[in-house]
Amino acid sequence: MRVRLIWLMGCVMSLLEGSGGVCISTSNWERVGGGERSTFREDYLNVLALMRREYKDDSRRGQGYYASIFVEIKYFNDLSVDQVLAGCGLFDVDATLPGRLGGDVGVLFGYLAKRSMDVAKQGRWRPRDPDVIARLAAVALADSIGRCVCGACDGVKSVLSDGRLVPCRKCRGGGKKMADGKAYAKLLGVSPSKWSETWSWRYVGIANIFSEWECMVERLARRELYGG
């Protein structure tokens, strides 16, 4: 089943609470991202821009630079999974990236691939094929920041059948493309059994990096927006 990272830690949710009584839910995060809360959106984007400038050349806290890119792409843009994979440059997908986003995704993936190798070495992964680990990093990144819409119903959750709307069978009425172990294994170039036995838990190890980044952004945003 497709792993999808969300604002999964209380530290991030506490930021939303501090923004003015926003109810903690995914739907309300969408409101925070624009519309009625557009001022907050602008403030947050300013914080992310500040992080880029502040940490770009600081080797001691360089993760803040990549964390800001990650959060901006994930929560303030609307890229598909295929677009993110295209930006990583390892897969033959029919997708393009608009404007500077192509460069941003490429920069983010380049750092993540190196960081993933560090995780592999620290965890003493065997085998430790750099090409497979790079693909794993790309897939984890695309899974986290990409919008995975069902191709059969185009994300609307239902299709027309015999003149009436019925739940989409392809995505089971969820509106999202459903990936399984075989799909992940194909992207990595390993067998389904190897994915289940070895690479699925390594995927989680890389995905944990994104949780670190989101908490880092939350702490800095709290300092800049609320002085806390």
What does it look like?
The chain has nine helices and two strands, in the order H-H-H-H-H-H-H-E-E-H-H. Helix 5 (81-88) packs across helix 6 (101-122), helix 6 crosses helix 7 and helix 8 (181-188) packs across helix 9 (192-226). Mean pLDDT is 75; it is low at 1-37. The protein has 228 residues and is mostly helical. It has helices spanning 10-18, 26-32, 38-55, 63-76, 81-88, 101-122, 130-145, 181-188, 192-226; strands at 158-161, 164-167. The protein starts with 9 loop residues before the first helix and ends with a helix. Helices cover 60% and strands 4% of the residues. The chain has two domains: 10-147 and 179-226, no CATH class; 151-177, no CATH class.
Q: What would a concise description of this structure say?
A:
This protein has helices at 10-18, 26-32, 38-55, 63-76, 81-88, 101-122, 130-145, 181-188, 192-226; strands spanning 158-161, 164-167. With 228 residues, the protein is mostly helical. A hairpin with a 2-residue loop joins strand 1 (158-161) and strand 2.
Specify the helix fraction band: 55-70%
- Please count the beta strands (DSSP E, at least 2 residues each): 2
How big a fraction of the residues is strand?
A: under 5%
Number of helical stretches of at least 4 residues = 9
Shape annotation? globular
Secondary-structure class: mainly alpha
Topology order in helix (H) and strand (E) letters: HHHHHHHEEHH
Task: List the uncertain runs.
Answer: 1-37
Number of domains: 2
- Let me know the largest β-sheet: 2 strands, antiparallel
Topology at a glance:
Layout: H1 10-18, H2 26-32, H3 38-55, H4 63-76, H5 81-88, H6 101-122, H7 130-145, E1 158-161, E2 164-167, H8 181-188, H9 192-226
Antiparallel strand pairs: 1-2
